[in-house]
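Retro notes - structure team

What went well: the batch runner handled both jobs without manual restarts.
What didn't: labels got mixed up in the shared folder, which is why I'm recording both outputs here explicitly, each with its sequence directly above its tokens.

Job 1
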Amino acid sequence: MRRLLRAGRLLALLLFVWLILFVPDRTVPRGTRILFDFPVSAEPIEGAALSGDGPLTLAGAWRLTGGASEFHSLSGLAITQDGQLAAVSDRGLLIKMPKPGEGELATARALVPDGKGGFALIDSEAIAIGEGGETWFVSESHNMISRLGALGERPDSVRPAAMAHWSAMRGPETLARTPDGRFIVIGEGREEGRDGTFPGLVFDGDPVAAPEPYLFHLKMPDGLRPVDAAVLSDGTVLVLGRKFGLPFRFESALYAFDLDDVGPARRVVARLIGRIDGPGLSDNYEGMAVEEGAGGALTIWIVSDSNDAQIIQRTILLKLETRRSALR
């Protein structure tokens, strides 16, 4: 037993030394500028394909790399008014970038400026954008919802009492705005009880201005946890689910439920739409944005969180296509 323990310690030490010597530090500089441009390249992933039958079609898969050390750990995704992708990182940045094939120049800005020309390394996990360009984001480690301020100004923030007991590591992972201006926030931590549901909050309006939501309970099949969500024009709530398993592998899938089924203290069961699995696709998907087209066509963009672990994780962008009728 002692030999095994010594061997384990030696292996851990060798791994630590290898990481220090051979893994480049992509987090330097950190928090030293509040607005900057940089190029992002999108390299198609050869052989990428969805496994199995289902309503989802893989229309594109790319590995993203950025010409700035801060480009990593993307955790939430939305679509801007001009059709770009807007992602928040769990290091405290909002990054706006064109879709693959539409350009390369991205812009990053600090979510929480520190007043000294830098920014706070806040764990932002999801983003929502209003019709007028207003931007909201959630911070998991602080159980906080914020509305972005002007450049260089700290955002307006609130820590709702309904989220106060959520674990710092299993806090708010999703933020979605409904067509009528309500907001949905879902926590990643399971609630107590045999159902293993997840806490969902519905705010009647801007959560920063009206932080008194009601609580519902979301059931996710197959052990996956909710990590992002989007609300369609017909009231369908699309949820991105994720699960980590050994050996080092992630499971991801899309689920849906109906906004009409949500109410105070209600239990809502999400239905499985399709799994995101196949050659070249396994990674830590955490961000999702949806575009609606003519005739019920849907384009679903999904991005992975590399966790600044570029050897074993990547920043992958997926483009999935389906139809609204397939979510029923």
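Job 2
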Amino acid sequence: MRLDVIQSARSDMEQACAAIGRLVQVMEVCGTHTVALFRHGIRSMLPANLKLLSGPGCPVCVTDQGYIDTVIDLARRPDCLIATYGDMIRVPGRNTSLERLTLPNVRVVLSSDDAVALARKHPDKTVVFIAVGFETTTPATAVAIRQAQELGLKNFTVLCGHKRVLPAMHALLSGRNDKIDAFLCPGHVSVILGSRAYESVVDNFNRPCVVAGFEAEQILMGLAKICRQIADNRPAVDSVYSLAVRPEGNPVAVGIIDQVFETCDGPWRGLGCIPDGALRMREQYTDFDAQKRFGIEQFPTEEPGGCECGKVLCGLVEPSQCGLFGKKCTPDHPVGPCMVSTEGACAAWYKYQR
């Protein structure tokens, strides 16, 4: 940790915020940033009129209730073998979760490759890979689908829950929370999309967008650049994460996504149905689409009573303002998804801010 960089960034922020002379609200889109901000104690280093908002940057958290209930319904089928990332088993549906069901046909995997391996190992079962995540994990799902096609695996399917970050940022500023002054853009997603991807936010909404990594100096440098842009009334796309993020992103990864998936409207928890906010498989890969394979009609979304996860994800309330926080809703007994994931805002607040 470079103290000189941190001190310089804090000085720049203080000068810029003093010149702005009003409350500045910056949303960190990424759940990893939310955790890093707490872990490094950055919130205590900020000027009094600079407020950070946790955004919809946790894939588990923004997965809508209907998708979870669909997964649970599939898990109850004896002919299915569910392959899922670990966080997803704890997310509550309307009445239960995969963890509470304790069914023998639910397997936790570390990668989409593991899901393909399950299908090869269990030819008598239809493996359903529970694919959630943003542009960071989507290429791996696309590779798995292509691999299954090449191997002729008829028993491998994907329940696609992948989402696109840029449409969600547009949806926030288009009405859900237009009080956001700027975005600290996600590092991992930006490795795939590139920093140029955020030009549409600057062009259409006049909001600064700065990409940062996850070390304290990176985050503070990014916030300092944001505050200076606001003070100078010159919003732009910038990056302090040049070691990993290129302006053009990763064309190979983007190409793999585009080959297998196409954009579609899709539901986000807290944001509703976002135009082009989700992905579905292209026609040549629909044999691997679990929704079509099983003729699934997704369950309607029903938010848990009293849970404010939707508002938390939009930066409208802080987790501690939810009446369930730390009482009925804890990491051991989560009511909403933001308390489940290690990158969820509520889980981070519970661990660091209570």
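One thing worth noting from job 2: Residues 3-20 form the longest helix (18 residues).
We'll revisit the folder naming next retro.
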